[in-house]
Amino acid sequence: MNELKSLKLGKLEIFPPILLAPLAGFTDSPFRRIVREFGAGLMSTEMISSVGIYYKDQKTISLANFDKSEHPIAAQIFGSFPDKLAYAASFLESKGFDVIDINIGCPTLKIIKSGSGGALLKDLDLIKEILTSVRKAIKIPLTIKARKGFKKDENILKELINMAEGEGVDAVTIHGITVEEGFLKSAEDWSSIKEVKKVSSIPIIANGGIEKEQDVKSLFETTFADGVMVGRSAINRPWFIKSSENYIQNGVGISLSLNEKLNIILRHIDLEVKEKGDYIGIREMRKFMQAYVTGMRGATHFRSKLNTVQSKDELIALLMGFFAIKEAI
Ligand SMILES: Cc1cc2nc3c(=O)[nH]c(=O)nc-3n(C[C@H](O)[C@H](O)[C@H](O)COP(=O)(O)O)c2cc1C
Questions:
Q1: Integer CA distances (angstroms), 171 to 83, 154, 237, in order
Q2: Which CATH number fits domain 7-250: 3.20.20.70, 3.40.50.150, 2.20.25.90, 1.20.810.10?
Q3: Which residues contact 62 (CB under 8 A, 6 or more apart)?
Q4: Which of 20, 180, 233, 309 shows the greatest Cβ crowding within 10 Å of its Cβ?
Q5: What is the CA(230)–ligand 1 centre distance, in A?
């Protein structure tokens, strides 16, 4: 395989069909803008509480801020009350999002306890009710992002896809792992995605376990999915989606010089601080910086210094020092 085809979500055409996964705490607007500057198909907000939107909680609503350069962009919502999910979907449609995605897979205890995310996989009737009411509330494409099942070894994908087709869902993203298996790498089951792709009449987006550009290609080839969604591998490499597209189409990924990487990080700091101010922006940047230096010599020392940094200037000074040493080696 060396040619990529657009992914169709209703009337929306997504190219490349390589999508940025919703990642709570990471896929905020500044990060998404960096990813989009390289090139990515659809991007997504992190999961947004439908209850928070319903009760007009300002912190929740701020998660739905985005810049026009981020189109096409999906808003992902979570919850368990069909009416509140429908309200949130309609609210987010009116804010200009291109797609509404419903979270049916989050394994976090707090989310599961509230009956949302992955807990929904225990109640297909409730999922059906949710899909009916959200579909009625919006005109833009509706997608769901689900795991294989709740309990270890459970696979309810056929029933789920069948229902999604009947309820007018435009595509299903599948993370081929159960909720109980959490993020256990060895439990990633790409064949479960392949099996359901064979019988699905709506697009399937495959997700889970990608570490290298080659893995994106393999996931397409193994599952015959219409799209691939990338999560953790994009956190320290916002160019990873573009690099994977290049790898599939031309056989080589993107290779960046130290200076190019430094400039990306500086731009990221700038966007984050502009959006959130010095105090929060710097704290947000700490976790990205931890990721950016992954695999680099001196990363442990750099990380230990990160938590002492209080201002944008201090952060930039630390970063410049770290990269200057690298240049000299
Ligand atoms: C830190 C973190 C936050 C996540 N947040 C979300 C989220 O908000 N919504 C969601 O559907 N999945 C979320 N996920 C799951 C990812 O979207 C994705 O399905 C999973 O990481 C597998 O893809 P990957 O192996 O490419 O990372 C999160 C995962 C991680 C590690």
A1: 22, 22, 26
A2: 3.20.20.70
A3: none
A4: 20
A5: 9
Per-residue pLDDT of the chain (329 residues; tens, 9 = 90+): 789 999 999 999 999 999 999 999 999 999 999 999 999 999 999 999 999 999 999 999 999 999 999 999 999 999 999 999 999 999 999 999 999 999 999 999 999 999 999 999 999 999 999 999 999 999 999 999 999 999 999 999 999 999 999 999 999 999 999 999 999 999 999 999 999 999 999 999 999 999 999 999 999 999 999 999 999 999 999 999 999 999 999 999 999 999 999 999 999 999 999 999 999 999 999 999 999 999 898 899 999 999 899 999 999 999 999 988 766 65
Q: Is 104 a known active-site residue? A: no
Ligand 1, pocket-test mutation among 18, 20, 23, 188, most atoms within 8 A of CB: 23
- 35 SS3 class: helix
Domain ranges for the chain, please list them: 7-250, 258-328
Predicted TM-score (pTM) above 0.90: yes
Q: How far apart are the first and last CA of the chain?
A: 39
| Fold (CATH) for 258-328 | 1.10.1200
Element (H, E) at 263: helix 258-292
Question: How many angstroms separate the CA atoms of 245 and 228, rounded?
Answer: 11
